[in-house]
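Suppose a colleague, Dr. K., hands you the sequence of a protein chain of 182 amino acids and asks what its three-dimensional shape might be. Before reaching for any lab equipment, you can write down a predicted structure in token form. Begin with the sequence itself:
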Amino acid sequence: MALYAGIQIHSSSVAQAQQYLPAASKKWGNLVTPILKRSSDIPVGTFIGTISLPTIKKTVNVFQGTTTSVLARGVGHYVKSVLPGTANNSILAGHRDTVFSHLGALKIGDPIIVTEQNGIFTFVVKKIRIVDKNDQTVIVPTTAATLTLSTCYPFIYFGNAPKRYVVVATIVKPPNTVGAST
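The predicted structure, expressed as tokens, is then:
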């Protein structure tokens, strides 16, 4: 009985956290291509690095997963996407009223810097858009190292927001290796 209750609570938390990601997130399957570690091998809740947004003078911790408890601690890395800097789409989600509260201040061309075990990666904002919460074009595989940031929208809204604010950035600088560990 306790095991059943635990599974129900976990399932509820995961479902609640998925509201920050479009419904299409189930399409990722086995598209993860790692540099040093497969994203799916990193336990949920593990600290994986930081994201710096110099334009808004903000640096935030990034943790593996997008569960409610992870997003309460900082930015969450969607486990079925690649780690930042890897050729494909790395997706990070955060709350609109905390870690991504000023995401709307970013402009095309602004830098985003991600630091994690595989290196320091510099991205530049290429696209900003507002989409329906179930938009299926947000979480798509890419050929180049891409970083997608997602948060609920509008930024000031009571209740479950009907849209998502999405920032898409592409890598512009090869990584500076900060130490490899597997």
